[in-house]
Ribose transport system substrate-binding protein (Rhizobium multihospitium), 313 residues
Amino acid sequence: MHFKKYLFGCAIGATVALACSAGTAMANTLALVTINQQALFFNQINDGAKEAAKKAGADLVIFNANNVPSAQNDAIENYITQKVDGIILVAIDVNGVKPAITAAKKAGIPVIAIDAQIPNGDNIAFVGVDNTKAGEEIGKFYSDYVKDKMGGSAKVGVVGALNSFIQNQRLDGFKAAVKAGGQKVDFLDTVDGQNVQDVALSAAENLITANPDMTTLYATGEPALLGAVAAVTSQGKTGNVKVFGWDLTKQAIEGIDQGWVTAVIQQDPAGEGKAAVEALVKVKKGDKIDPIINVPVTIVTKENVDKFRGMFK
């Protein structure tokens, strides 16, 4: 094992308990490989996983890939060397990480994918949302809104994260439902926020500038939505552009209260983290788990936003 890689596996920002020794982790240690620790969504996954690990008496180590797909592969390789008891993965590149998952399986280490499904992967289960279906749900909501509130026509720009498999699924589902809705909706540009708030802000500002007649905006994840909300506000478009997206934030709730953020898909990231740890604990005990553990979503609007305010105080 390379010394650099060993340090890489041990120098982890957030842990419940962390034990690195020369090639062997403490007994009953679980590893969570996440995308970044900027987005509230991923931090909430961490919180749910930490709580469940503590309750189960397990140690949890968390690796932050900082949006770098290859870093996730390296982390998994290091956790295999350290002989952790199970790995939870929030994948960036669902295909690129498959060899690392297979290596973990060969080493007898179960991997549970969370949030992003691994197509034909060797992970033992998936915990999370059917992103295409949820994209269809908000797409139908959007289409009905265009019909009922916008006279049946709209122009929509998209702030996405083109390197994110799941955010592309959310866009595909959205587009399919909008097309099926039968309204006159023109899709304008799709800009790449790269799952980074500052990048998403710049991309959204450029999108608005290039499309002054845009009437709606769809953001496929938390950084994209934060960037979109900030751009609409900074460019004085709150009276002209209705925003739809994923993953509530304090800023999104303020927009909902003001009436220009219209609908936001809210997941249960803490519930996903909790469910993944609980599933690995069951596997450790020899119990069977379902290959797909679905966590439901809610479309948050002005009518039900009060239920979620407490999460963002």
Summary: The radius of gyration is 20 Å. The chain has two domains: 29-129+269-296, 131-266. Confidence is low (pLDDT under 50) at residues 1-26.
